[in-house]
Request: fold
Amino acid sequence: RLYNDYTKKYLKNIIISIFFTILLAGSTSAVAYLLDPAIKQLFIEQKKSLIFVIPGLIILAFAVKGTSLYLAKVIMINVSEDVSKDIQTDMFFSLIRADTKLVDNTHSGKFITNLTNDVGMITNLVSTVILNIFKDSLTLIGLLSVMFYQNWQLSLMAIIMIPVASI
Reply:
C-alpha cells in the first residue's frame, strides 16, 4: 500500500537516486581497482609518465563517489518528505471525516503520535533504508567483482576462510 498509494508517483526520482547509487558503487569499486596499479606502476616500477594520471583518476573517483552519495541522499530525502506530507495530509483528512465519538474517546496525544512518529518511521523507511539497501548491495557486488578480477584464488580463499575464522 505504501508503494501504490504514496511512493509510486515519485518513482522517477527514486530511479534517478538509484542511478546515483550505481555511480557511487562504481566509483567505490574504481578506487579499489586503481590502488593496485598505483602501487605497482608508481612505487614499484616508478613510471613517471603515470604520476599525474593514476592519482588524478583516484581523485576523480572520490569526487564522483562524494557527489553521487550527496545527490542520491538529497533526492531520497525529498521523496521521503513528499511521501510524509502525503501521508499526513491523508491522515488529517481522515481524522476530519472521522466519527465524533471516536475523536472524543481517543486521547489527543494518540492522534499527534500517529501524525508525527508513525509517519516519521515510514519516512525513514523510504529515505534511509531503501537507499542503504541499494548502496550497500551494489557496492558489495562491485568490490567482490574487483577482488575476483584482480586475484580470484585469493578472493575465493578469503570468502571461504572468513566464515570459518569467525567460528
In short: The radius of gyration is 24 Å.
